[in-house]
Amino acid sequence: QWDVKLFKEMLSFAGWNLFGGLSNILYTQGLNILLNIFFGPAVNAARGVSVQVQNAVFQFSHSFQMAVNPQITKSYAGGNLSQMHLLIFSSSKYTVLLLLLLTTPFFTNAEFILNLWLKNVPEWSEVFVRLMLCITIIDAAANPFMIASAATGRIRFYQFVIGGTMLLIVPSAYIALKFGCFPYVVFVVHLIFCLITFVARLFIVRSMVHFKILEYVKKYFCRYMLVLILVFLMALACNTISERKMVEELLIIVGTSAMSLLFCFFIGLSTTERVFVINKVKSLSRRLKW
């Protein structure tokens, strides 16, 4: 039995999702082509290294959010928008904090880690990796809002704006390279457009599920942004130290990771969340002792 209205809705949903996926493929491969045209295979190899790191980090964030995404959809379907808002905001914040813990060593010691991983590290790899990780963190923070828009089923405007904006990355990067910019400018352009689309997502999804942007900014965004800034300042301070020995490199990785954990715990989490974590750790320690 054919339900024409339902079939059209499903076809529209699939079609606009396809548009979003294609735009992602086009700007990703477009940047590869641009780097190859302007700088050759050596710089493309450096991009390949950064993409491998990005994919590993993305898989981690995707695995974490997979547990939350069905709950976001379920809350919307049940009409429980307040619970949905809480899940969106919390998922966004926790993902960023977890990724910061995971990526701190790359921000502070990217050169050392890449030298351990690769025999010959391509030029620009260190800068590319750091910029790509920034892009990944922003995308991970925005992903719960994308799931929220998909839960409503009304994704045409969302995909048109976000996908269309991301397609502008390639021509913008081309113009920058034409003016003689360095290869990393391609990633800076990508990062800028990610920030633009992140803001656009907030306003588009707000009109769909009626959350308060100010509440998200005050209770969640400001917290993890402060942690992000502190981690970047710490990374900047560490990178001013030159000619470090292997033992010093390892100590910096351990020390900065510990500091990042403290930032996430005392700044990233609210008082209620800290109490919850402490209770969980105590419960786990009692089980291990038993």
Give your account of this protein's structure.
This protein has 290 residues and is mainly α. Helix content is 87%, strand content 0%. The chain has helices spanning 4-39, 41-66, 69-77, 81-117, 125-152, 156-166, 169-178, 185-209, 213-239, 246-268, 271-289. The longest helix is centred in the middle third of the chain and has 37 residues, at 81-117.
Record the SSE blueprint.
Elements: H1 4-39, H2 41-66, H3 69-77, H4 81-117, H5 125-152, H6 156-166, H7 169-178, H8 185-209, H9 213-239, H10 246-268, H11 271-289
In short:
The chain has 290 residues and is mainly α. It has helices at residues 4-39, 41-66, 69-77, 81-117, 125-152, 156-166, 169-178, 185-209, 213-239, 246-268, 271-289.
- Any idea what the radius of gyration is? 21 Å
Secondary structural class: mainly alpha
Largest sheet: none
What share of residues are in beta strands? under 5%
Tell the overall outline: globular
Compute the separation of the termini in Å: 60 Å
**What is the string of helix and strand elements?**
HHHHHHHHHHH
Which ranges are low-confidence, i.e. pLDDT below 50, for 5 or more consecutive residues? Answer: none
